[in-house]
């Protein structure tokens, strides 16, 4: 005769010598036992039974193995990024990566002075500048942008009332960016491709600095002249014309433009963009013996 016993138990597989030896916990369970042997002397091992737990016990999230981030895991990528930025000479990869980081961090300043398409044009200019003249060249262009934007914002309400303010609240578009940097970009490309060899490489760098100093002088003189110019004269005829007239200049704007260009040139010398120039490398004039 065979007996089957159905009792609550846990979801595990265990071997018990008798039905009374298994432990019962608080979870609902279901056990299946093998038929009970009525003659233990004949086959004593047959009294053992197997218990299968069919209950579900949820696993806590803390019991799952988790990967813990270590500060050492960040050292490698961070070190690689720093080495990429500090590449000397600069590469296209370092130029693009550096500009992406700088443009993301400086986006609040960029949107105040440039339109969206202007930012795209400025990114191309920044990448080209970094590739050709490194971080110091990029810093020179950034300084030009900050000073020029600040001058554009001076007395903006007054300029708008007089109808002489820049469009889009002074936010310049791609045309302004390209026009301001055209000469500098030519110098940058000549430097990248080594036109003229090493002897002319520093001349292209000097031309790069001079182009932005000239453009900054034009921007500042125009914007300050619109804001503070008392009398403006037309360059071609020296006739007095209203402020904001194309081709007109004022004493106040002219002085401000000269100071701005001198300031940017001085900054270029401080950051090493103009202090390496030695005209003896480029202009060698030999006079015949008398």
Distance between the termini: 139 Å
Quick one: overall form?
globular
Sequence stretches where pLDDT stays below 50 over 5 or more residues = 1-25, 27-34, 46-54, 277-290
Helix and strand composition category: mainly alpha
Rounded to an integer in angstroms, the radius of gyration calculated over CA atoms is 40 Å
Q: What is the mean predicted local confidence, pLDDT?
A: 78
Main beta-sheet annotation: 3 strands, antiparallel
* Total number of helices: 8
The helix-strand sequence is EEEEHHHHHHHEEEH
How is the largest sheet built, in terms of strand order?
Answer: 6-5-7
Task: Assign a percent range to the helix content.
Answer: 40-55%
- How many runs of DSSP E, i.e. beta strands? 7
Binned strand content: 5-15%
Write the layout of secondary structure elements.
Elements: E1 6-7, E2 13-16, E3 31-32, E4 49-52, H1 71-85, H2 92-105, H3 107-113, H4 116-153, H5 156-162, H6 174-192, H7 197-228, E5 232-234, E6 240-241, E7 248-250, H8 251-270
Antiparallel strand pairs: 1-3, 2-4, 5-6, 5-7
Helix pairs in contact: 2-4, 3-4, 4-6, 4-7, 4-8, 6-7, 7-8
